[in-house]
Amino acid sequence: MSCLAVDENEFLQLLIAFDEMSSSSSDEEEQKERPRKRPFKHRKSKGVVMFRDDNGELKVLPPTMSLWYNMYCQTGCQERMSDFHSKFRRRFRLPYDQYRELVEMCTADSMKEDGTSLFKRWRPGKKAALTGKPAAPLELLVLTTLRYLGRGWTFDDLEECTAISEEVIRVFFHQFIKFGSTTLYNKYVGPPLTVEDAIDLCIREYEAAGFPGCVGSMDASHVEHQRISFKHRQAHLSFKLPFTSRTYNIVTSHRRKIFSTTDGHPARWNDKTLVRYDDMASTLHDGTNPLCNLIFELYAYDENNLIIKERYKGGWLIVDNGYLNWGVTIPPMKDTDTRAQYRFSKWLESMRKDVECTFGILKGRWRVLKSGIRVHGTDKSDMMWKTCCALHNWLLEIDGLDKDYTSDWEGELGELNATDLPNAVRTLLSNTNPSARSYAGRAVDEEDYFQGSLVRDEDGAIIVRHMNMTDFRQRLITHFDIAFKKKEIIWPKARLQMDEPYANVQP
């Protein structure tokens, strides 16, 4: 008979383990016998919109049976209405073909496998394979975002039209504005990268209007933000508006194309502070912008009172009087002493309305910027602004208004006559002007030459960014006055070839 030798320590460990097992089993039995204070919750099947089938049974309406899906997402839906495309663009701001292209962009992003996808939650077939229930259709979710931006609806309103819960719409919206402020923004918003691109995009209009070297107009605008946190509320209350808002500074061409925009800043900040955060304006000032290599000529008078041309180097922007006195930011004059100064300032103010029109188009087309942003977080507000800027430039490209002042549209749309010109421009066409004294020849108080030291490049061209704003503006006034008398100044008209001859404007 054999005996097993067991160590004393091992024996004690076995006893302890046996006691723990018996105590745990007894506790489980006590928990089963102990009554629950609260009954178990039985989740009901969630449904946004309900309907009754042919048998009278109440069921959940799937998004693929919703109103919007039947009207806009089914194959061949555009063939059922004669005015489908015009109504679709009015309701969702984008043409139907570009809407389908945007859906394809979101679908392609959802299929990424590198971990950078923003829409992987709505990848076709992913949720159905895991849970047996399909995810909300991307076609409908893109429509909800366009309607939210375009008409300022709420997520609850969109829930009724799509049978998708407002939480799902909210989550998708936040992902879409990330997509719009990065992918779409980088694709459609950006300054000219070369001088040749700038000539095609903006320089020709400004040069024809008497402002050689100008590459755009710049201004800032407020956008109401209703969900500013309490600690940031005071900084976002401006002296002009009674509500909290964010301020955005943009640079546009005369064709309303947005070249650059800043991130949002508190409404208390003025233009002199905002311009330092604008990439295009600041790089023109410090000389790192490719447009600093732009060469242009201005009329001037020599010592013998003869008209000559002087070469300059560097682009500049049209602004109002709220910006810094940089040589690359030229505002109109507040007080004019001569007819030449008055004419230049009025014409410059009229040209600067292109950036004001851009703000009007943005807030009219994307009503959420006018009715007020209702999402939490200033970063979300900036994403929505950049998304709207990208969609605005995309629509300019769709309509053929981004590169040439031409269009396939027929009729008198855009053909301006004398009565269609701005009031300030019509005033300048008359020979009499009671608000400015008679001007014949050069004014005696004009300074023909810069009294400081001019900085020139190796070819002798005067570098604009090293000049003072007042001095460079006076040179522009002299050029404009000479060109106006030579009948070389024209008012750029939309959808008109810049190569075609213009009717001379009578001084």
Automatic annotation (TrEMBL):
Keyword match Nuclease: yes
GO MF term (any one): endonuclease activity
One Pfam family from the record: DDE_Tnp_4
Reported cofactor(s): a divalent metal cation
Domain DDE Tnp4: start-end pairs: 218-393
Keywords: Endonuclease, Hydrolase, Metal-binding, Nuclease
Lineage: superkingdom: Eukaryota
Biased composition (Basic residues): 34-43
Chain intervals for the UniProt region annotation (Disordered): 23-43
Transmembrane domains' residue ranges: none
Cited InterPro entries: HARBI1_dom (IPR027806)
PANTHER family: OS07G0546750 PROTEIN, OS12G0169200 PROTEIN
Protein name: DDE superfamily endonuclease
Source organism of this protein record: Nitzschia inconspicua
